[in-house]
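quick one, 448 residues, struct below
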Amino acid sequence: MTDTAHRSMSRWFEAAGFHLLLLTAAALLGWLSHQYNLAWDWSDSARNSLHPASRALIARLDAPLRITSFAPENPVLRGQILEVLERYRRLQPLIEIDFVNPAMEPTRTRELGIQVAGELHLSYQGRSENLRVIDEQSISNTIQRLLLRTERWIVGIQGHGERRLDGQANHDLGSLGAELTRKGYRVRELPLGTQGDLPANTGVLVIASPQRDYLAGELRAIERHIEGGGSLLWLLEPDQGPHPAQLLELLGITPLPGTVVDPNAADLGLDNPAIAIVNAYPDHPAVEHFRLVTLYPQAAALSLQPTASWQARALLTTLPRTWNETGPLKGRVARDPQQGELAGPLVLGYSLERRIHDKTQRVIVLGDGDFLSNTYIGNGGNLDLGINLLRWLSGDEGLLDIPSRVANDLLLQLSDTQGAIIGLGFLLILPVALFTAGGLVWWRRGRA
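---
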């Protein structure tokens, strides 16, 4: 065999070996992709992956969660739905996904109340809920609602000028009530005068800034709720409305006279000194990892008279330079110690706990209701704080919030100069460079 034939045969074997190895590697990669389901998300803010809060939420599942999509035989629609749901199933094998063609099972579709194509039906341990908006925020919140094992009501007392949890007026708490409902809580308003006692499934009783005194029978019903170990959120107001002495004595809380004045508000561009600022929180489960600034308009400071039964902790504390102003909030105001005006930091809220009837009872008393009103709840972290407090009172602090994430990398913003440079590069410089490289290759081959 000549040298030329030997080299030709060697090159043939090398090429055949290379292609054989390439095919083997491709087959091996295909087999590995079926055996191991791995994914990487390089998008901005990892929007194509589950938020850590969603991951922690589905980790709490201890029984199969069945998700049924009622979608027609449309590959595009089903593919889009499956893409979202697979993010959950990849991390939690207890999640089962199924597709049903509504046209093939009209009876089942009608019985479950399915109304739109692609609507989801989630069922978990005998509880179920339909979902039309298919994104992480909505799906995780639905799972969160299904995880609430018992229907515990958040009950707001009505009939004495209180802020309503379903009200739309500026002073009402309708935005808070709507968010609680969205997160799976049952929010009810109750005219206490028509009830002998609060419903047995009252999870948290809310007393939201009443403007008129409670009747003796109504006070006894509230006392029975507290003495029976029920949770309570009590929103007080400065020098406004009734502050039932027997309830305050039972809890060991006393409102200080006047309204909290906070000169630090000017540092945030606020021109109202009667807005108190809280930007630091204690090591308490209700505000664990909470780092948002919260604002409290027209708030009352509170003092504590410790009792033997309650374990009380300051929950909300103002910044230094604050005081409780007892005079008119007009013109220049300054602290007058002779009028009982105390220098801050002042306490705006206390949490109280005790063991009673073989369970832990939780109470929160705050010196302000405006911060949760429809007018102010969007300021700073007011809404998030309100949700956290009610979660703690309900014993559901283990349930996590799933914030929506903004996709910041969907839009490429370029200046005119940057656009011109890119356009010049693609339209002129790159073609010239390719033409030059091709010419050099041709010239070198011609010389060889």
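Residues 404-410 have pLDDT under 50 and may be disordered.
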